[in-house]
Every structure is written in structure tokens, then in C-alpha cells.
Records
---
Amino acid sequence: MGGSMTSGEHCASAIEIQELDKWYGDLHVLKKVSLSVEPGKKIVICGPSGSGKSTLIRCINGLEPFQQGHIQVGGVKLDAPAAIQAVRRKVGMVFQHFYLFPHLTVLDNCLLAPVHTGLRSRAEAEAQARELLERVGMRDKAQAYPAQLSGGQQQRAAIARALCMDPEIMLFDEPTSALDPEMVMEVLDTMVMLAERGMTMVCVTHEMGFAREVADEIVFMDHGEIVEAGPPAQCFTSPKSPRLKAFLQAVV
Ligand code: ADP
Ligand code: MG
């Protein structure tokens, strides 16, 4: 790790984003975004729809190209295709829509990446997948197909699948937004469990209870900019910007 580092200055960061600018055509969707995430920290990104949250998360994982600025993940600078592959190996991603492979069982969904990439033998991967499925409360669903599961179960399976690649960092993009209300808590509980085990996490979510409980830092975005950032106690009780105030009144 950190082989391409020259200064060591940012070695401590799990994620280091400097002055990131991204456009879709003429649309300026990320504007000089800078963000530093230390290992083990939990960041919650919130903000109105269209403010650039998903785009930022996708840039961190190398899923979106960007035009200006720098992103470094786990000591690897995202600047070349090989680096993108290296970064993706360090980062687990959980989306709003679970994207499990419908034709594979939960267990086989979990085995695909670690076995295909050669990270583990099939036997090792299976032992680890079963352990992770147990951890997310899905042990008895290992042989089920996604269509046989509730949304909450599918999302917990998706979390287990991501964990099977031994990620250093987990990115969540509105993981509970597509769920029926009664299933939100089981997924948030799984995320809290991960947080308590020390995972570095960046979560886009509007679950402010989760944010209060888990986040070290709240990052509020609007129109492609980070408008305000700080600990939950400060952002929620005494927001500085009128835009964050208005947003909190709307979501809480
Ligand atoms: P959020 O996740 O905060 O709702 P997004 O990152 O999805 O916001 O979108 C930010 C802006 O970029 C929005 O104006 C959206 O319409 C636009 N956008 C997102 N994806 C694309 C795309 N693939 N092509 C063009 N515009 C996009
Ligand atoms: Mg989004």
C-alpha cells in the first residue's frame, strides 16, 4: 500500500479528495469538492436530490471519470485504469437497488467475486461467505434466490457480498431508500454492526437517526458543493448554512 506515494503526507487517509470537479456535458455536478476520511471514520453525506451525492460516491470507486482534482483511496491515486482496478479491490459498494444476480443463490452471489478474482479458493470463499451471512443474519438464506427474499434481506445479502472481498472501505448510496419502512431498521442495524467493528464508511443516507448515532462527520451537499461539514451534534443542532437548516426541516 502507498507504493506510489511520494510525500507520505496523506498516507493516513483512507480517502483523500482534493478539489474535485466533474461535469456531465455542460452540467457542473461536482464543484471543488474536497474531503478527507481517516481510517475507521464514518462519514454521512446528505443533501437534496440532484446535489451530486451519488456522483461523488461513484467517483470514489472509479465508476465515474472526473475532469479536475485528485482522489486517493487507500494510498492509491485514481489516475489510471490499473489504479481504478486496485481501488475497486479496496472498496465495497452497496447501492439503493441491491443488484444481486437474480439467477444465483445468495451464497453464489457472495462467492462470485472472491473466487473469480482468485482472492480465495472456492472452499475458503464459501467458509468466509457463510460466516459473513451469519453476521448479517442471513445464514439460513444462503441457498435462497434473491426473488425469494424481502428487500431488507436482499440488501443484507448485498452487504455480505461486498464484505466477501475484504474491503478496507464501504460506500453506501441510499441503502435503505428503496425499502419498505419496516425493513429499514434491519439494514441500518447491519450498518451499525459494521461501524462498530471499525469499518471505514461513507454513507449517503437521509436516515438522520443513523447519522446521529454513527457518523463522525456529516457532509451536506447542495448543487454539487459541500456546503457544510462537521460532527452531527453541530450540524444537526446548530447548522450554520440556511440551506442545511432548510434541508433538515424538510427531512426530519
Ligand atoms: P444525488 O445522488 O445527490 O441525487 P446525482 O449525483 O445522482 O445526485 O446527480 C447530480 C446531477 O448530475 C443531477 O443534476 C443529475 O441529473 C446529473 N446526472 C447524474 N447522472 C448523470 C448522467 N449519467 N448523465 C448526465 N447527468 C447526470
Ligand atoms: Mg443519488
---
Amino acid sequence: SPWGAWERDLAGRHVVVSAGGTREALDPVRFLGNRSSGLQGYALARTAVARGARVTLVAANVALPDPAGARVVRVESAEDMRKAVLAAADDGADAVVMAAAVADFRPADYRDAKIKKTPGEGPEPIRLVQNPDILAELGARPHPGQVIVGFAAETHDVLANGRAKLARKGCDLLVVNQVGAELTFGRPDNEAVVLAADGSAPVQVPRGPKEDLADVIWDQVAARLAPPGV
Ligand code: CTP
Ligand code: CA
């Protein structure tokens, strides 16, 4: 809500936000990456600071200035992000919001030396292995009083895929947005629907600044937090 900035309804709370996109190294100079800019995660961090929260921002490969008042932990890979997010979640976090685009797969073998091409020989295929699913891990652990929020990037069947993902991940809220080359990445605005595991009606957020979506997400989180001091 636009009132959030001066309501400070997150005062005394610790919130953890992940942002950006992980990079999965192939060799010392190359990686597999994705198009996440980190803008939505940074908007979440800024709005949470404005609402009075202590904020830990776990940032993967973003080219954005640190939000004032947040503690920023920079990471590169999904494995790094997992360690940083779980550590921050265990540090008395009231909410964890996974806005980062975490690579589903990483190269099976990391080469210590730069991969070279051999004249006349084709490239070797890159074998991939699956990364840990941080959000599913957060959702599967006992988290009394901790609100877990995921994002879902879908290119089609947005609602049906979102509902299935909400159930699969075991999170409390899932922010579903439609992605495409120009729809979301690197843009200052976003449009989404927020699904809840508790059966309450989906909240449709019209296209607008990423701060507006962030404030709606914090409204939904705040409504699910136990009263302070409990
Ligand atoms: N996520 C995560 N760890 C992963 C992959 C995803 O924590 N290894 C989180 C993302 O940060 C996001 C949510 O899970 O909050 C959903 O990510 P998404 O890519 O939409 O879902 P996946 O479960 O990876 O399914 P798929 O990519 O196959 O649609
Ligand atoms: Ca994925």
C-alpha cells in the first residue's frame, strides 16, 4: 500500500530477500547465467527498509547500488545463494522472499583451467546436474512464524502452473508473473498475481512500478506474521 512507507509495520522484523540471477561456472572465465536484473528484489529490499524492517539482501550478480539501510550479501552461484539464504533465514527471520532467479542446473564438471578449442574437433557437450531448490528447502523445513514467499516465472498457463508450483514448493505465498523477452526482465514495472497457500483469494496486481508490487507483497506478508513479541 502507498501508506506502507510511513506505517513502519515491519519494525522489529527481520526479512530476507534474494535478488538477481545466479551464475554457474564452467571454467574460470565462463558461466551459465540468466536475464534477471535484480530490480524486483531490490525494490522489495528498499520498501521493507522503508517499512521499518531489518533487511538482509542476498544479491546474485546485479549491477545495482546497495539499497540504503539493508545488509547486502553478494553471491554468485546457486550453492552460494543457498548457504547465504539459509544462514540469514536462521538468523531470526520473520520472512524470506525468494525473488532471485536461481539456475535450475549447473555444469557437472568445473574446469580449473580455461576450456580450449582444438582445431578440427567439435566442442564437447556440456553435462548439467540439478541445483538444490532453495525455496522448496525453506518450505519443507519447520518454519513456525516464518513467512516463505516464492516467485514463479511462467511463460504460459500462468495460473495453473502457479498453483501447482505453490503446492510443490510448500511456501506460504507465490508471486506469479508472466515472463517473456520483454515482459519483465530489466524493466522497472511488473504485473503479477499473488497466490496464497491458506486458500485466500488471489491478489491481482496491475502493471505498475516494481515498488508497488513489492508493497503488495509486504502487505500480504505482514498480514500473516504472528503478533510482535510472540
Ligand atoms: N528457486 C529456488 N531454487 C532453485 C530454483 C528456484 O529457490 N534451484 C526459487 C526461485 O527463487 C523462485 C521459485 O523457486 O522463487 C520458483 O522458481 P521457478 O524457476 O519459477 O520454479 P522451478 O521450481 O525452478 O520450476 P521451473 O523452472 O521448472 O518452472
Ligand atoms: Ca527454475
